[in-house]
Structures are given as C-alpha cells and as structure tokens.
Amino acid sequence: MGEVNKNRLSSIRFLFGGNIVFETKIEVTEIDKEWLQLIIEAKNLGIEKKEILDYLNQKI
C-alpha cells in the first residue's frame, strides 16, 4: 500500500446535472488514485453510472 502524505489533498467536486453539489478536499492515497483512474477509464469508455460498479468489480 502507498503511504498517505497528509499534506497531499485533492479537491473533489460532486456534480449533478452540470451543477456543483458540493466540493470537498480529501487525502489521496495510491489506492484512491487507482480507483479514480478506473472510474475515469469507465467514463471514457462511455459506461453509464449505474454500470460503473459492475465494471469496477470486473477489474479487481
């Protein structure tokens, strides 16, 4: 597992219909980066939100 760098915060925006619902800052670990990369990959492949969990389960 990657080490958590407490000073390494990323801003995440949660969108709904193009509008920002809320924005938060989270610590990003290497594992988080892997999950985020898989989600981005799924979105780039045109996978619908409701199908992303199935896609992620296939990848792990």
Automatic annotation (TrEMBL):
Q: Could you tell me what this protein is called?
A: DNA-binding anti-repressor SinI
Q: Which GO terms describe its biological process?
A: regulation of DNA-templated transcription
Q: Which residues form the Sin domain?
A: 22-60
Entry-linked Pfam families = SinI
The highest taxon in the source lineage is Bacteria
- What keyword terms does UniProt attach to this protein? DNA-binding
Q: Does the keyword Nucleus apply?
A: no
Q: Which gene encodes it?
A: sinI
List the source organism. Answer: Cytobacillus praedii
Q: Can you tell me where the transmembrane regions are?
A: none
Gene Ontology molecular function, alphabetical: DNA binding; protein dimerization activity
